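Quick board copy: two proteins, each given as sequence then tokens.
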Amino acid sequence: MKLLFLIFYFLYVILRSKKSFQMLQQNFYNNSNRYVKWIFKNSKRSFLTVDWLFLIIIAIGFFGFDIGLLMAIFYFVMFIYYYDYLKFEQVKIKLKFTKRVMRMCVTLFIFYVILTVLNIRGNYIYFLFGVLASLNSFIIYLVNIINRPVEKCVYWHFYNMTCKKLRDMPRLSVIGVTGSYGKTSSKNILADILNVKYDTMPTPLNYNTPYGLMLSINNKLDKFVEFFIAEMGACEVGQIKELCDFVHPKYGILTRIGVAHLESFKTEENIIKTKFELIESLPSDGIGVLNHDDPKQVGYKLKNNCRIVWIGIDSDCDYRAYDIDYSYKGMRFKVKIKGSVYEFSSCLIGRANIYNILAGIALACELGMSVSDIQRGVKSIRPIEHRLEMKKIGSRTIIDDAYNSNPIGSSMALEALSLMPGFKVVVTPGMIELKDKEYQYNYEFGREMSKVCDKIILVGRKHTKAISDALRDEGYDETNLYIIDDVKEAFNIVNRDCPLDSYVLLENDLPDIFNE
């Protein structure tokens, strides 16, 4: 019976471990203790589960029942139950079986092999293994700690490989892009503009960590590239500086500074300081592009003597967009460049993208591109996935802004929705990681929605409470408000209750770690 128990037990543990690895991965392998915080915030999903029912079986064993058989039946039932649960669970980001995850799987395997070989006698083995299954989230955390020395060695191996490759490319110039939001859009827009004249390579997707930059440089960067655009993300002070010390950017773009990741940064001052680490790391002959409409950037005392170029819409600056004509088909606007006025057009939508395009125009000019080439580049800009991306599904139009959300970005997304000529719908789970200001910012988000949207679909009762409170206070017609638990249901509502000319804004898509 012990063998039967071990078979069903390990089948179940494999499923539990896969889920725990997925949560560890989405929490950046416990960077800033994110995974540990997730465990305790989600105790009913992580360790206060039905797994502890095995204690009842252990107690029954004292009355002479075959505990091995009972435990085998228990974990067979648990395996079937959990397999069925995972099959129907809504998963947005699946576990990626990277080499790092595979190394942790080997460590976990060795851990259980040692325990099995020890051949612990009596009912103690059932008790020990039952506790380990119930605390699986913590076991995966322990495995992550055990593997740290190995991961450190792997990190430095690839770090040195990357540094050598960069040293062997003296013609290469690095452009850093950071900010609280708009990094990926700004990076891709700049790449589309520069590619008209130069061989340019941006980091793929949202690769904005040390590992992401290493993968990009070691696997993608070739000797013909003239400009490498490195997206730089951070959730702690010093992380942008770490990336700059790694790739040594000569040019930098700071998009906008908001309150994203306020929970890990602790204060807005820390966010501002961290974002400016890029500009303050530039050499004296470098160029930094800043946003003059962002008071956090204007008010910052820069500790660097590099050249600064300002962009904006609402304030007079080096590169200012004006006479902006927004429509659901795209945008047209004018920019004054070196005393002459030039018109630009793009298929992108939204005020946020005007800033991103302006940053690209400014840096391209400073790098010697002709205005006609820049105009061609701006016109050829491709929509960026999940960033105010327009999609047609039947006769309805989806405005996909699902990648991330923050107070300023969500406001700009609603502004873009307001320009649409048809029935307006928003689908959102609200905003997260805003610390003690989360309720306030979501409340304001709800107030803005009430002025724009014909129907509102909120995903998750807990995360969207502030939004629903605001809608109620604003007197929004509750027959046009839906609160659901599964985002898939939103599309059923749109198909059932919304006219064919609807424009549907998907604002934010919480990762699996925030599933209710």
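And the next:
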Amino acid sequence: MQTGKDKAPRRYVVIFVIMCLAGFYILAKALYTMLPPESDYWKVVGRSSKKALIPANRGNILSCDRQVLSGTVPKYALYMDFAVHDPDPAIEKKTREFRDSAFRVDLDSIAQGLARIFPDRDEKWFRERLLRGKARGKYSWRIYPKLASYVQYRACKELPLLRESMYKSGFHADEMLLRLKPYGGLASRTIGELYNDTSSRAKCGLELSFDSILRGKPGSKHYVRLRNRNVPVVDAPADNGHDLLTTIDINIQDFADRTLRRKLKEELVNGEVGVVVVMEVQTGDVKAIVNLTRGEDGEYYEMKNNAVSDLWEPGSTFKPASIMVALEDGKIDLNKTVDCAPGIVSMHGRKMKDHNWHRGGYGTLKVEDILGYSSNIGVSKIIDEAYSSNPAAFVEGLKREGVGIPLNLPFVGKGEPRVPHPGDKGRYWSKSDLPWMSIGYVTMLPPISTLTFYNAIANGGKMVKPRFVTAELKDGMVLREFPTEVLKERICKPSTLRDIQYCLEHVVSGGLGRKAGNGGRLFKVSGKTGTAQFSENGSYAGHKYMVSFCGYFPSDAPRYSCIVCIRKQGLPASGGGQCGPVFSEISQFIMSRDSMRYAVAAADTNSVFVPSATKGSRARAEAVVEGMGIGKSQISMAEAEASEADKVPDVCGMGVKDAVYALQKLGLRVRVNGCGEVVRQDIAAGSVAAKGRTVTLTAQPAKI
């Protein structure tokens, strides 16, 4: 019987032999690798190794409430390898036999699955496509011509054969990072674009201006050739780009876009270019910026950032700036009167007209009515009398107010304001320049510069720079903030500011800007109309006009400023009549939305906020309040009067949609004038509801 001591030497001998065998194996493998033919293979592998960049994921551009306005989305080009090659003949044969067998068995299932995933192609098309690739025996045969989404790619990986590894099935995909805008053309030129190539170079807009933040830093990798495949090896990972938090409110943007688009298409407007910019008064945050240009097909598209880049003569929206200079310098006060009859006068050899000159003009006007009726004669006479001997003082007064101040906006190709000075070298200053400058000609401003000036009036005289980006984010966390920049602490004296604010409110309440307001029923609006002939190549012969309205709301405590501009050809051309209604709709939309938000926020935390409901569909009202977390039983609404089957119901107070439904249900035809809440019906409630009879409804926006 052996003892433990006898077993120990034998155990050590066994271990020693195993280690020697392992060492001999390693040495033999090394020698085998160093000698042909294996050494030749590894030399080829070494030479085929190449370096490449790992692209960084580009950061997203977000709306003010962090919705994606422009984001990077992975897309996949789908391929199938029908050829097989491997350095080991046995492995190559085995792989080919597996693919051929599985392809024959699963072809129909694969074709059906692909047709289900990509419904724009049918099963027959996919079957023929796969068979064609098989017959040709090609590497990287494209099995679907378009790019697939990640969800579609993962669905493909669930199909027979394709679910196997790339080496067994031959199915693989090339990932591409594409820049997409979920909201389509909304604010497209402001958000910006990338070039349609593989470089991911920024082309314009915020994409270009903040490219260094968005693009990130690429990483690096190299490829090693193994078993006839390029295998990537990461050397340094990519540092992805950061996100931008913008000031754009997508709801205001969408409403402004739709409202302007609808106005441009009206027969009497037939606009060529339309611009809307909405700005928050205190911060300068641009909540919406719309730039629409008519294409060859008659539809409107965002082709250029006109609000920022185009230089236009502002027309009558410039008149408040001129009057402010005279008020600030003590040349006039609001009691100043000017004789504007007979509506046409000679100003240094050129005819100056008011728009009603053929009716004899306005006669004698006070300053508030000169702006209210937008009298060219009234403004030009005031400025010419006060500054004709020293026009430089007028221009310097404009610059003191911030008119034409460089905004240095973050956009390539931005327009720089041009406010000519009598002392400018290389430019001849004529005596007629002063009166024509005072009414909005001679000077060239981008629309956003005009809005910035009006925003300063609304902001108590403080001029702030329009802001488009508020923060830089990484993984949702704020890395850097972009605060509001103050361009001028005060554009004029408080007394001058009060006078001009009074005049701008009067323009809407009692002047040509009535259509920009709401009749004073909801809130007060202040602003100024503008109508100017549009010059091309220095000539006004083309009968093109720039109509506009610029203002702010509500007048007593301004929260938003807005400018609406339309470039059109031919008459009628009216800033108040054509741009005013757009301003009115946008202002009412914003204020109604904000009023609901503030009402909910101000409610007693111990009480339940229950909105009132007008006559109409109780089912729809109940669905709305349920979404707000309010029980159906709490809703209080005036139902439509129950009427006999042959009687016309009372639909006053209903929304248009509900009123039309109630009337058409009885076989009546309905014609609607206006939108919002029904205030009048031309057939009295209780009348006989004769089928085919037409009922005309008059509607207007509901009061806030």
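Board note added afterward: Residues 611-639 form one domain.
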